């Protein structure tokens, strides 16, 4: 974590509608360079939809997503990846009939710097030694936790400047969840900016410098992660207080 306060990605009045239903109702948030920002809330609050709109995978009804001043809402999803904003989708979406290493290679499909790709592959293997041990095996034979590690590793192979993580702890055992959050912190220590979308509010706010609480498509609270952890409203609603 770098402690940087320079904004790198700004969401301004972002709204997303499915038919007549407005799932995201004009949210605004800022990611500072080198920080972890958590977007937390209950299931159905609009967290994943917000990420999909930032990634260009669903169209915004209104609003802007500015990355270093460039409006991403005008770009196709693959151009957004090329610009440096990369999402790890909820549910992992690994290609189960390909090997672990083939999945990782696909993450680097936009890159032409072979030496850099080779270095990043070794970095991913250092973060996730289990993937190196299983590199020639099929991704479909990995456990749920290992597939989550593979999904994160594949995103890192695209060399993101901003990493968007959608529910990385979902469906995983407690020990694996702890490991995933530890690795997110390790990734952040390299200077990478992270937007972490999570139902696991306590874990997310513990590692985030800044947090936003989303309820029914609206941001209802924003503060430092530590302050939100101690906020009576957050404790009562999400932490069993």
Automatic annotation (TrEMBL):
Protein name in UniProt: ABC transporter ATP-binding protein
Residues in ABC transporter domain copies: 9-241
Keyword terms of this UniProt record: Amino-acid transport, ATP-binding, Cell membrane, Membrane, Nucleotide-binding, Transport
GO biological process, one term: L-amino acid transport
Entry-linked PANTHER family: HIGH-AFFINITY BRANCHED-CHAIN AMINO ACID TRANSPORT ATP-BINDING PROTEIN LIVF
Family, as annotated: Belongs to the ABC transporter superfamily.
A GO molecular function held by the record: branched-chain amino acid transmembrane transporter activity
Pfam families associated with the record: ABC_tran (PF00005)
Top-rank lineage group of the source organism: Bacteria
């Amino acid at each position: 974590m770098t402690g940087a306060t320079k904004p790198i990605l700004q969401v301004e009045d972002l709204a997303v509608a499915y038919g007549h239903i407005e799932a995201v109702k004009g949210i605004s948030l800022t990611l500072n360079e080198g920080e972890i920002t958590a977007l937390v809330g209950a299931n159905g609050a609009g967290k994943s939809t917000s990420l999909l709109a930032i990634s260009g995978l669903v169209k915004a009804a209104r609003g802007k997503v500015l990355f270093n001043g460039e409006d991403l809402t005008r770009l196709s999803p693959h151009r957004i990846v090329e610009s440096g904003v990369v999402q790890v989708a909820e549910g992992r979406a690994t290609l189960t009939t390909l090997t672990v290493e083939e999945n990782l290679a696909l993450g680097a499909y936009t890159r032409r710097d072979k030496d850099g790709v080779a270095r990043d592959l070794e970095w991913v293997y250092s973060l996730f030694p289990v993937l190196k041990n299983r590199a020639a095996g099929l991704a479909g034979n990995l456990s749920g936790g290992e597939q989550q590690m593979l999904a994160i590793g594949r995103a890192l192979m695209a060399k993101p400047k901003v990493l968007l993580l959608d529910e990385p702890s979902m469906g995983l055992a407690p020990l694996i969840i702890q490991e995933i959050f530890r690795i997110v912190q390790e990734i952040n220590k390299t200077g990478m900016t992270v937007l972490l979308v999570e139902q696991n509010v306590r874990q997310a706010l513990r590692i985030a410098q800044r947090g936003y609480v989303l309820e029914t498509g609206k941001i209802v609270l924003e503060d430092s992660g530590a302050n939100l952890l101690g906020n009576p409203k957050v404790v009562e609603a999400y932490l069993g207080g």
